[in-house]
Amino acid sequence: MHLKSLELINFKNHQKSKLQFSEEINCIVGLNGSGKTTILDAIHYLSLTKSAIQSSDTLNVLHEQPFFTIKGSFELSRQNLDVRCTMELGKKKTIFQDENPMAKNSEHVGTIPLVLIAPDDTDLIRGGSEGRRKFFDGLISQLDHEYLQKLIRYHNFLKQRNALLKRFAETGNPDFTLLGSYDVELISLSEWLASRRKSLLEELAPLLQKYYEELSSGQEKVEISYETKALEENFGEYFYSKRDRDLMIKTTAAGVHKDDYHFLIDGHPLRKIGSQGQQKSFIIALKLAQFQIFEKAKGEKPLLLLDDIFDKLDDSRIEQLMQLISQNTFGQIFLTDARPERSETILKELEAEVRFFSINAGAVEM
To answer: Options 1.10.10.10, 1.20.1050.90, 2.40.400.10, 3.40.630.30; which CATH number does 128-298 get?
Structure first.
């Protein structure tokens, strides 16, 4: 699988840009703020139907323009596939496959597997549980369409239940029969989603350790501990035991939206005792394990996006990563760098086709 070409219209600071890519390595260089990361974000849209950076689609429309369009031409399983994402202000975003609109954008997720390694990825370690849940939910959703649909269903029921709790608090007249219908769904969905999350981590564990050792030359044991109540035998009873508290605080206190993932090194919290280098190695190992799981599941190598990766790694880790690339571990790669001379020096050592693109204020030069 590879992305042959990409066209941006009114997307962020790109008024109109078109790029033809190498099947191997594509290096996008330019000053910070020039629009090079925008190229990666556009590819992210074509894979996951959303930005990796902005939570609101409207913020990605070029100033004073009414819409943005992203077009990508892919070769997938030796077949051509054109994907287009269009967002008009005041309207819903639409994803097209070969000019056929998707009934639901979520149906497209998983068609084009993608792994992104970005500068702020270490926030997964230092940040809150929501970011970690979103990462693993996104990973599983690219693999398992049923998981994505059940996750969407879960959050819809959760939103409706929380609205009921607020209404009950305002009226002082709770309807426990109605509330119970939501409880049954949330309990069942929590148990199913938690089971799938657990099985993913079992597959991920040996790959995470393998890549961590390759990147860091370290002997530490790294692992991910999954914290959930949904897999406990009495989860239903636990959920119901929170009902009085739910009515008081007007929100749902139990369910997989409360789960967390703990990143450990030799059994201790990575964010507390891990060095900066150990944390970076852990995150990159996690993303490379994700890559291998996608490749096994899809039978094709996913796209690999590396945003300012050379700026965040020391020389030894860059060398280890480049060795993996030179061994044809990955398929098509897109990377950005603010220092063209550094990229040229590092990439010229590889026996691969490398195509450079220079970005200046949203304009592309090859």
So the answer is: 1.20.1050.90
Upper half-sphere CA count for residue 107 (Cβ side, 13 Å): 10
The Cα 317–Cα 245 span in angstroms is 49
Dihedral over Cα of 261, 266, 272, 274: its sign: negative
pTM of model > 0.85: yes
pLDDT per residue over 277-312, tens digit each? 889 889 999 999 999 999 999 999 999 999 998 877
- pLDDT tens digit string along 15-32? 999 999 999 999 999 988
Crossing angle of helices 176-216 and 276-298, in 10° steps, is 110
Give span(s): CATH 1.20.1050.90, the chain. 128-298
Q: Distance between CA 149 and CA 238 in Å, rounded?
A: 25
Cα gap 211→222, rounded to integer Å: 10
Residues in the chain: 366
